[in-house]
Design a protein that fits this description.
Blueprint lengths: L7 E5 L3 H13 L3 E5 L2 H11 L3 E7 L8 H11 L4 E6 L14 E4 L4 H11 L7 H5 L2
Parallel strand pairs: 1-2, 1-3, 3-4, 4-5
Helix pairs in contact: 2-3
C-alpha cells in the first residue's frame, strides 16, 4: 500500500498519553493519524480534511463546547462516509447519545481490543491490510 492509499483516522482525546497511545494503536492497524485534543479542534480539522478521513476515534469527555457524543453526531450528519468509534472509561452511552452508525469501546483499551473492534465494525473495503492481517 503506498502512502497515498493509506486511509486517515482522526483521533481525539484531551489526555496526551491516551491520545499518543491511541494514535500508535490505530497507526499499527494501518491508518495514518490526525489528532486533536478537543471536539472543537476535531471539527476544525474535519472542515479542512474530511475528504481523506474514514475513521473517527474519540473520547467522550473533553474541554470546549463539543464533547465526543456531539462530535459523533456532527460527523454522522456532515460526513456520513466516516466510521465512528467512541471511547470512555467513565460514561456509558444511553439511547440517543450516539448516532446509530457509531460504536463504543470501553477504556482502558489496548491494541488487541481496538484492532478486534475495528475488524468487527469497519466494512471490509475500509480495513487497511495491516488490520486485516493482525491477529
Amino acid at each position: 500500500m503506498t502512502m497515498s492509499t493509506v486511509p486517515y483516522a482522526l483521533i481525539v482525546d484531551d489526555d496526551p498519553i491516551i491520545l499518543m497511545d491511541a494514535c500508535a494503536i490505530i497507526e499499527d492497524a494501518g491508518f495514518r493519524s490526525l489528532d486533536a485534543v478537543s471536539g472543537d479542534e476535531a471539527k476544525a480539522i474535519l472542515a479542512e480534511q474530511a475528504d481523506k478521513i474514514i475513521l473517527l476515534f474519540s473520547d467522550v469527555e473533553m474541554p470546549g463546547d463539543t464533547n465526543g457524543f456531539a462530535l459523533a453526531h456532527h460527523v454522522a450528519e456532515h460526513y456520513p462516509w466516516i466510521e465512528i468509534v467512541i471511547a470512555s472509561g467513565r460514561i456509558q452511552p444511553v439511547d440517543g447519545d450516539m448516532p446509530a452508525k457509531a460504536s463504543f469501546i470501553q477504556k482502558p483499551f489496548n491494541d488487541r481490543m481496538i484492532h478486534a473492534h475495528l475488524r468487527e465494525m469497519l466494512p471490509d473495503g475500509k480495513q487497511p491490510e495491516p488490520l486485516k492481517q493482525a491477529v
